[in-house]
Design the sequence.
């Protein structure tokens, strides 16, 4: 599956959730499907998307939070998985798109391309529910199961190392940030 | 351990009075009482980190979600957080309240702290992060309040340095 197919497959399930994505291809592809006020794109600060999601989830336990992370980003902040596993916010769903590649910066292979298993690391770090999927159907099922479970879940979605032609969109970083804050204020 | 419990309580009370309800921390000697106070307070969520840069992301999320937060760290934790501060909190204009123990300056006995002590304030200046020193117990409450006010009016990170004179009783 491509990441774009995976995002499209769960797009309609994001209503009512605070959504945080990593930079680059994930942010651009989400916006190509359609930006919404409940989406925040962490352009840069690599590794910290799951930490931002944790901060939201702990601050607002009644708001479901979805983080769309990537293998390169998670590998920059493996310790963050242990913090997720420690606090286990039930309202946090952590998706890791794993294409085995630092696609946005030239496609250099990450450690997952040589066997590093992020779902196993998340489980060993204390994340109570984990899954690893490689088809769009399996991804939607795992995503829907995690939303129903209301238990911290990390889903590693194996995706092809393909992305959009360009990463810069016409949505300003600060426009997005203040819009997202106002969305959460109104919740 | 001659860390000042009384002055740690002053700092903690000032954070509470300012509405701080989420504190991220990575333990270090000077912060032991502050972390314990945060852990014991049912109104405060303490997030124990694996590495300090995570705290930048957590504070970003807390701010976007409407909760005031603070970070407790050693100056080496600040050094470890710099990318997150620049490409997270500064890029996205997040009011980050950082309380940084100022190890490695005059009076430091631990050789391993001394390099960090020499670069902390120059790095804060290079990053254009406003900084005030907390050294006088009588000024703690007002300076914490002022730091928080500037962080929120400017939507930027600010730093308070926890100095030896405040945190350590055996000078």
Sequence:
């Amino acid at each position: 599956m491509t990441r774009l197919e995976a995002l499209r497959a769960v797009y309609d399930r994001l209503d009512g959730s605070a959504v945080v994505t990593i930079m680059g291809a994930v942010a651009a592809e989400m916006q190509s499907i359609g930006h919404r006020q409940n989406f925040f794109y962490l352009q840069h600060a690599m590794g910290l998307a799951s930490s931002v999601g944790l901060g939201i989830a702990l601050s607002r336990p009644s708001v479901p939070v979805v983080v769309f992370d990537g293998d390169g980003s998670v590998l920059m902040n493996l310790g963050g998985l242990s913090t997720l596993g420690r606090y286990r916010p039930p309202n946090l769903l952590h998706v890791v798109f794993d294409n085995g590649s630092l696609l946005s910066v030239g496609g250099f292979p990450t450690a997952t391309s040589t066997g590093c298993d992020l779902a196993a690391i998340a489980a060993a770090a204390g994340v109570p529910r984990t899954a690893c999927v490689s088809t769009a159907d399996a991804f939607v099922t795992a995503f829907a199961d995690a939303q129903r479970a209301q238990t911290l879940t990390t889903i590693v979605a194996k995706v092809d190392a393909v992305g959009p032609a360009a990463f810069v969109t016409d949505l300003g970083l600060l426009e997005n940030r203040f819009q997202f804050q106002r969305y959460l204020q109104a919740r | 351990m001659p860390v000042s419990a009384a002055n740690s309580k002053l700092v903690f009370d000032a954070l509470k009075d300012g509405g701080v309800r989420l504190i991220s921390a990575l333990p270090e000697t000077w912060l032991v009482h502050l972390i314990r106070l945060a852990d014991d307070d049912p109104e405060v969520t303490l997030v124990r980190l694996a590495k300090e840069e995570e705290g930048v992301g957590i504070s970003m999320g807390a701010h976007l979600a409407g909760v005031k937060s603070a970070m407790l760290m050693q100056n080496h934790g600040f050094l470890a957080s710099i990318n997150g501060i620049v490409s997270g909190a500064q890029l996205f204009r997040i009011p980050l309240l950082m309380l940084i123990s100022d190890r490695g300056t005059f009076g430091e006995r631990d050789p391993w702290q001394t390099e960090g002590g020499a670069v902390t304030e120059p790095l804060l200046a290079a990053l254009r992060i406003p900084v005030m020193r907390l050294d006088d117990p009588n000024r703690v409450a007002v300076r914490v309040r002022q730091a928080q006010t500037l962080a929120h009016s400017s939507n930027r990170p600010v730093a308070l340095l926890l100095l030896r004179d405040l945190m350590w009783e055996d000078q």
Notes: Chain B has a mean pLDDT of 97. Residues 140-154 of chain B form the longest helix (15 residues). The domain at 5-167 of chain B is CATH 3.40.50.970 (Rossmann fold).
